[in-house]
Amino acid sequence: MAMEMQSRDSSLRCLPKRPAVDIEFHDVTYTVPQGRKGSKVILRSINGQFRSGQLTAILGPSGAGKSTLLNIIAGYKCQGATGQIIVNGESRNLKQFRKMSRYIMQNDLVQPMLSVEEAMMVAADLKLGINVPKSDKKKAIDEILKLLRLEKASTTSTNKLSGGERKRLSVALELLNNPPVLLLDEPTTGLDDMSCSQCISLLKTIAEEGRTVICSIHTPSAKLFSMFDSVYIISEGQCVYQGYGPEVVGYLSDLDIECPRHYNPADFIIEVCCKEYGDYHDRMVSAIDNGRNCYSSNAAALTMEPPIVPVDLKGSISSIKEEVYADLSSSSFEHESNWTTQFWILISRMWLQMWRDRSYLLLRVVLHVIIGVIIGTLYFGMGQDGSRTLFNFGFYFCCLIFFMYIPMMPVLLQFPTEVQLVKREHFNKWYRLSAYFTALSFSTIPVQIVLGSIYVLFVYFLTNQPLELDRLFMFFLICILTAIISESLGLLVAAQLTVVNAMFIGPVISVPFMLLAVYGFGSGYDTIPPLIKIAMYFSYLRYSLEGLIHAMLTDRQKLDCPETEEYCIYTDLNFFVKEMGMEHTKFWMDVAVLCFIIVLFKGGSYYLLRQRLRPNKTFIALQYIGRLVKSHLGLAR
Ligand SMILES: Nc1ncnc2c1ncn2[C@@H]1O[C@H](COP(=O)(O)OP(=O)(O)OP(=O)(O)O)[C@@H](O)[C@H]1O
């Protein structure tokens, strides 16, 4: 209790002041297509209001539409929704509203490998900008951590936080620029009773400071239920109650539904919604006029009709509006840090996370050493052996396959999860997506260079390749460019898919690239049909192979044929290059094409990622067609 009081004393003085925001919604309907079955209506002409300075709970049976309503109010889902959302008496400007509201989704993902304090400092740098002195940011962070009782965990790694601490950290991160509206989807799920009540008490403190705090919640205890300033109950996509929680008993009693003594009113109304005592759904919806009214027991004497107070949807709000609306339309919610700052903060965070994950880094180093030694041993000394030119060619191709798969697999495994985090951070306006994507693209280059060098040094010398610095450099350059392309291809695949699908599609999609790179090998380039010759130039590995062959085999003296061999067919390397159809290739042209492919794949991945986070009309139409096709073919789950 003492702790509760202590946290309530805090008023987040360090944070920028924000205006109060009241939200109303009218006739909100949300429909999703259901293939041949037509469409499914999830929210049905629902109305309601959420006030500033209040903690509001959205309750209802599972599948009632709580998360859907939160998604629509937050602006996270708009496609398929109709109706009106009013913010401080004016129709909601979604762009503006997204800047002033923060949505904490159910999956409380936080950036791994950082301490709580570091995660907060990164968020503070991004949200408050670099012009705010570090000491002020530190003060704000300390205040928030104290408010959310995370001071003791400030040095704990985010990977090691308990469920409750992780949820509180998700809230803390979003409090940094003091958003006036906070929406939380089931913040208490997975917490024990004590942590639940602590979490709700903290949210109440946050609301008391003038913010509009709305959270969806599953069957709270009677104690929790009474802590909310306002409760909004949904059943079957319609509002069945809006008002103060404990008054639900009186409301139901007015509808001739008696809540047993000592029974949790929250449990009882959910059971009523689930029709355990008969079908009262329509009566409740019409009593509250589907959320247009708000229940208050003080408003009228008990009559046959429930004492519902019509909500003055303009009245109280308009008084606030005059004071604050100017603030709302100002640019005070813009990104405080510019693109370059965001880029540097994000790339530093990525490097720090890579460095902290040292066991993984070490594993990758060891893997490059082991595979380098194995491949080097398999092709030992073949680089200048006239009888082994074909084996040597196999070695070059083997190196390219290594640099095609090894950098792609971690991306396919990690990026789909990372997208969920980016979705949350980007939706809550931490940074521009372009800044994030550029940081992501550059952050991995140093690691690729170091790991690539380890591998190249082992194989180059073990296989006895020519000891010429320019050839070594060209070999290395082609390997690194191939690695970067493969990584970009991984991003392209993983940007729209789940881990399972990405892990399947990524390797499968690489097979045609491999085949096209060496198609017709052995039978002579001239025997390849013209169409396949054209197709070969759609494989990036073909350019890598051309580059490697050019770097390693052109302008070299005839190789010696060992005495143990009777005849060596490819001692003349120029003849071999001609047989491969690569005699006219230019190394720097191949490098230029590889660089172009990197830009192409990166651009494609960025576009797909952007569409994943905020699809445009074409993409929405494509998704819709995809869903229709899937449901018509019976593939929709
Ligand atoms: N894209 C969709 N396609 C089909 N049905 C959907 C879609 N999105 C939501 N639904 C359905 O809409 C209903 C409401 O979903 P919602 O997630 O809002 O429920 P909820 O009240 O938050 O449930 P819970 O408490 O279990 O999380 C559910 O029956 C769900 O299956």
Give structural attributes.
alpha/beta, 25 helices, 637 residues, six-stranded mixed sheet, binds adenosine-5'-triphosphate, disordered N terminus
Cα-atom radius of gyration: 31 Å
Overall tally of structural domains:
2
Cofactors, ions and other ligands in the entry: adenosine-5'-triphosphate
Q: In what range is the share of β-strand residues? A: 5-15%
Would you give the CATH topology of the largest domain?
Answer: Rossmann fold
SS summary, helix count = 25
Largest sheet: 6 strands, mixed
Describe the global form: elongated
CATH architecture assignment of the largest domain: 3-Layer(aba) Sandwich
Q: CATH homologous superfamily of the largest domain?
A: P-loop containing nucleotide triphosphate hydrolases
Distance between the termini: 48 Å
Percent of residues in helices: 40-55%
Low-pLDDT sequence parts: 1-11, 300-331
- Order of strands in the sheet with most strands: 6-7-8-3-9-10
Q: Under the CATH scheme, which class of the largest domain?
A: Alpha Beta
- On the 0 to 100 scale, the average pLDDT is 84
How many β strands by DSSP? 12
